[in-house]
Design brief:
It is a single chain. By secondary structure, this protein is an all-alpha fold. It is built from 3 helices and no strands. The N and C termini lie far apart (58 Å).
Length: 102
C-alpha cells in the first residue's frame, strides 16, 4: 500500500447478489398512491410500522401485480397475518384509508 493512492479492494473480495434479487424502480409512479398512504401512516405513527402493515401489504400487492417485483407468498414477506384494507385505527382518516383503484 502506498500513500496517495486508493487501496486495492478487489483482492479477495467477492460480490454476491441480493437475497431476494433485484427489482425495477417505479419510474412511472404506478404504485405511488399506495406508497404515499404507507408513508403518511408511518409519519402519523412516529415511524412505527406495526400499525401500517396493511398499507405495506397493499403497496407490495400493487408492485407484484404491476410486475415491479416477483410475486411471493405473504408469509415469506412477514405479512401472512395481515387482512383486508387499511383501517382508521392505523392513524389515517376514513377518507384516505381506502386507496383509490386505478
Amino acid at each position: 500500500m502506498s500513500f496517495g493512492r486508493p487501496p486495492t479492494i478487489n483482492v479477495g473480495f467477492k460480490t454476491t447478489p441480493p437475497d431476494r434479487g433485484s427489482f425495477p424502480l417505479d419510474h412511472d409512479g404506478e404504485c405511488k398512491e399506495q406508497m404515499m398512504l404507507y408513508m403518511e401512516c408511518l409519519k402519523k405513527n412516529s415511524s412505527t410500522s406495526t400499525p401500517c402493515r396493511t398499507f405495506s401489504k397493499n403497496y407490495l400487492e400493487c408492485r407484484m401485480s404491476k410486475g415491479l417485483m416477483e410475486r411471493d407468498e405473504w408469509y415469506k414477506l412477514g405479512l401472512g397475518d395481515v387482512e383486508g384494507t387499511p383501517s382508521v385505527k392505523a392513524g389515517m382518516s376514513a377518507q384516505t384509508a381506502v386507496p383509490k383503484s386505478n
